Amino acid sequence: MTNTLSDVTWILAFALLALAPLAIAGIALMNTGLGRSRSAAQSLLGSVILVAVAAIFFAIFGSSLAGTATQTGAGVTVAGKFWDLSGHAPLLFGSAGFHSAETLRAPLVAILRIWSVVLLAIIPWGSGSDRLRLPAASAATVVSAAVLFPLITRWTSASGWLGQLGVSFGLGAGFLDSSNAASVHVFAGITALCVIWVAGPRKGKFPKPGVSTAIPGHHAVYVLLGCLLALVGWIGSNGAASLLLLNSPLTGVASTALNTMLSASAAVLATFFITRARFGKPDASLCANGWLAGLVASSAAAGLVGPGSAIFIGCVAGVITPLLVELLELGMSIDDPSGAIVVHGVVGIWGLIAVGLMGALAAQADRAAQVLAQLVGIATLLGVLIPVVYLIFRLLNKIVPFRAESEGERLGMDLYELGGGAYPEFVVHRDEFHR
Amino acid sequence: MRFAGFFLLFAGFFLSLAALVLLPSLTVRFAFVLCALAIEATGLTLAVRSHMAEALESQR
Fold first, then answer.
1. Whether the predicted pLDDT of A2 surpasses 50
2. For a designed S-S bond to A374, which of A269, A356, A427, B26 qualifies (C-beta 3.0 to 4.6 A apart)?
3. How far apart are CA A49 and CA A39, in angstroms?
């Protein structure tokens, strides 16, 4: 891949990357608002710490495994095809950093990857809200940022074995993912599921089989403000990915930004009407989840579909989100306060399928072959990541326990881990959930 | 039950790879990959059911 960026395009790519951390701020606020008031400071401080841990461990180790687009990675040859499984770039971007970089693309892609791994780190944090200990979350982040995320990023990149399915096996353009939906969102959804399995539900959440206690988020304003911040961040990251990973022209970046907005809008409207129809009034936290689901679906598809398709993709994301959030809680006893399994995992998978069904293809390309490439990618993500991540977390749990002690859950994670609350002047209310 | 579920998830993944390597026709490959995803869904269901029982037990 050569550097084809003009100065103007480079400045635009950097400006878009500068917006992307707002997605991280948005998710952190949403995680905090959807948890209890007595865990708010731990939640937000935890997000900051996890951002730091993820950035440092990815920079030191992960960047080496993720490799660069111009360098052939390490892999195996099976059935006469080379399967690129891992990069082998120097640790910490090489001893000279990017001073010796020949093109601008490498440093910009590195920044995009760091934003991505940071986003990946804080998404499961919200799912473990009110009982997940920060040291355990940090240990899990080290594994994700240093090893798992780089490998998945490599596999799904244009030079990885999934990205090469088109060249190797004639499957369309290979696995397509316009803005790291697979390596960030699907992976984050799987990580959230494994965190919940290892940490268990909050005390009092499931008093009897088939019965779930509602534990509402403590701050709807944080949650909805987080949604608006996330939109700006998503436009930045999707736009930058469109320039850097898809080599889109400037018109393509505008189209990506438009599709991101349309997808989120369609999703939130769909969730608004679904929750209004089901509960009589729209539900603020589910609408926030719907909005975020629209953004997640756009991560897979925004750079590769038209505006009509973006609206349809967002609409489907907005319909399935409230229904599946309810199913997971009531039907499967999964206590996911932030809804990350559905919003990031399931909707991320929907976005990847939608790219195969509706994405722009080359003139001679076969639609069925492209869908097949997407399905193979999804089978890989589910079949490899769920067992591997769960087993790693079970091992980590023996070294660094994931779940706070019962006393910590009763006091709240703020007092338990930080020694002070987020709202010290508020009167502490009666504990109605912990039995 | 949980580990049987994980075994099925791995099995689905390997079946999808085998379909790519061993089968020439797009239609047959498609059918095999769909079967692989169905096996993974079964594995995930087993793992979820195992953890449902554990989640309810932890509340007692």
1. no
2. A356
3. 15
The closest alpha carbon to A249, from A8, A87, A36, A1, belongs to A8
Residue A435 falls within a domain, yes or no?
no
Distance between CA atoms of residues A199 and A212, nearest Å: 17
Q: Does residue A318 fall inside a structural domain?
A: yes
Chain A residues in contact with B29 (beta carbon < 8 A): 372
Choose among B38, B43, B40, B58: nearest CA to A196: B58
Instruction: For residue A173, give the CATH number of its domain.
Output: 1.10.3430.10
Q: Which residues pair with A77 in a beta bridge?
A: A82
Q: Count each helix (H run) and each strand (E run) in chain A, helices first.
A: 20, 2
The beta-carbon neighbor of B21 closest among A78, A386, A387 is A78
Domain assignment of residue A93, yes or no: no
Task: Count the domains in chain A.
Answer: 1
| Range 13-52 of B in CB contact (< 8 A) with A | 13-14, 16-17, 20-21, 26, 29-30, 33-34, 36-37, 40, 44, 47-48, 51-52
User: What average pLDDT score do residues A351-372 get?
Assistant: 88
Span A87-133, pLDDT tens digits: 888 888 876 667 666 678 888 999 999 999 999 999 999 999 999 99
Strands (E) across A70-141 are located at: 74-78, 81-86
Q: Which residue has the higher pLDDT, B24 or A323?
A: A323
A409 Cβ neighbours under 8 A, 6+ residues apart: A130, A131, A202, A203, A416, A434
Query: Which domain covers residue A203, as residue numbers?
Result: 21-69+98-425
Reading the block at residue A3, the tokens are 């550097």
Residue A233 domain flag = yes
Q: Is the pLDDT of residue A435 over 70?
A: no
Nearest to A319, CA basis, from A285, A269, A358: A269
